[in-house]
Amino acid sequence: MNRSTILCAVLAWIALSCSTDNDPYIDSSESVRVQPENSANAYDYAGRIYQEFLESYPEHDLTSWDIEDIDKQVRSLWNNYGYKTSQYERFSEIPTDTLPEKNLEKILSEANLSASAKDSFLDFLNEILAQSGNDYNTWYNTICAYETEVAEAEWIDRDKQVILTTTSLLRYSGFTLYSAGEGEEEDEDWDVAVGNVVSMIITAIEDTPTAISNALLYTLHH
After folding, report:
1. What is the pTM of this model?
2. Which phi and psi angles does 2 have, rounded to 5°?
3. 207 burial class (0-12, 13-18, 19+ CB within 10 angstroms)?
């Protein structure tokens, strides 16, 4: 499986204190893997619902679930938190046999985002792709630093929602995949995480619950 696999799920979704306790940045030299939360991201609930789903439904019980089964439960969790949901119901799986490095720019060019947001997001995704897959803490710090940049940018709310939803799902799905395997398996888990990016971005721009569902589907089936 190649590195292009985590980034595919993020693209489907397109379609942030001073105290030590609240500082999202972690020393990458620490041997203990940081948890995926970042309360400074206003859209971190997407990742929290992703994680709650996995904690509520053990993976070994979900291998036969399709996107409709997953989406139904995700929307139930979504509604429990009082969030509004759309009637978006395109449950097609995102192809994972194309290299996101070659399709990120094309996908983002067609997204309903401002030009400055597209350029910034593309640079960030390329940076994530270029990282090796053996250090979740470094990956987490890179994402949190970018989330701070996005939160402070003078962009419209829609730009921030799409990007910060995607980065939240990246943090949580990456943590799940890294935690599931150690040593030699981490490179393969990194590949899965990258492939998941494309899926997240493509659906995030349409509907948050669908983006969460696609991220979960990718995690469970890879």
Report:
1. 0.77
2. -95, 170
3. buried
